[in-house]
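Final report, Chapter 2: Outcomes

The project's central promise was a pipeline that accepts a single protein chain and returns its three-dimensional structure in a standardized token representation, suitable for archiving and comparison. That pipeline is now operational. To close this chapter, we reproduce one record exactly as it appears in the project archive, with the input sequence first and the structure output second.
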Amino acid sequence: MVQQSLSHLRDAKRLVHILKSELNISDRNIFVVVNRFSPKSSLQLKDIRDSIGCTNLVEIPNDYERVATTTNLGIPLFEYSRKAPITKAMIELAETLNVEIDGKYRQSSFFNRLFDKKNRNNARKVNLPDRLD
């Protein structure tokens, strides 16, 4: 996890190097999360990608006020602001890392609900008699 600062990039570059060279972890298994991402920053995703040498970057947008509010209120971010970009980014991050997400936290559209395999598998089953008379 890094922020858009040179000190974060230096540390991340060192860590990614250790992961690749000493621990033999492949590029496809290394993800760098850019926390509090701001498109207005002088360091952009391309700069971070080039500097660190990692292609898997996940950005979490900067929304300090909303996160501070939910923390102070003790309310999960998803319940406080379901459609906020930061909430969507956190859910996408979990899905990227193959973390199983409770269905109530997934962003779903009408078509996703309609064609979701789990919903079809949970459909009500009708017991038919073994033979018809």
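Archive annotation: The first strand starts at residue 32 and ends at 37.
This record, like all others produced under the grant, will remain available to the consortium after the project formally closes.
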